[in-house]
Amino acid sequence: MASFAKELELDSALTLSQAAVGCDFQIRRVDGPECRQLREIGFCEEMRVRKITNGRNMLCTVCGTRLAVSKHLADQIKVVPA
């Protein structure tokens, strides 16, 4: 049953590029060929992220650090409201 709930939550998750600016989110999935480096710097599941700006490159904060993420990478990150 818990597995079904997690799958349902992922189905309703947004990509980071779709997420609203100024809101806090929890990362649910970081999945894509270029995401290895994001994981290495701590940008991974269960972390909280705040999207600061939108555009070709998005500025976010995670763990108190500002990080610029391309739209291509942001499309590979699934988030839910925190």
Note the gap between the termini: 22 Å
Number of strands: 6
The overall number of domains is 1
Judged by helices, strands and strand pairing, the structural class is alpha+beta
Give the averaged pLDDT, no decimals: 87
Major beta sheet summary = 6 strands, antiparallel
Rounded to the nearest angstrom, the radius of gyration is: 12 Å
Please report the number of helical segments: 3
Structural shape? globular
Instruction: Enter the CATH topology name.
Output: SH3 type barrels
User: In percent terms, what proportion of residues is strand?
Assistant: 35-45%
Walk me through the structure:
The chain has a 6-stranded antiparallel beta sheet. The chain is α+β, with helices and mostly antiparallel strands and 82 residues long. It is built from 3 helices and 6 strands, in the order αββαβββαβ. It has helices at residues 2-12, 36-40, 71-74, and strands at 14-15, 24-30, 48-51, 57-62, 65-70, 77-81. The protein is 24% helix and 37% strand. The protein is globular. The protein starts with a helix and ends with a strand. It has one domain: Ferrous iron transport protein A (FeoA) (SH3 type barrels, Roll).
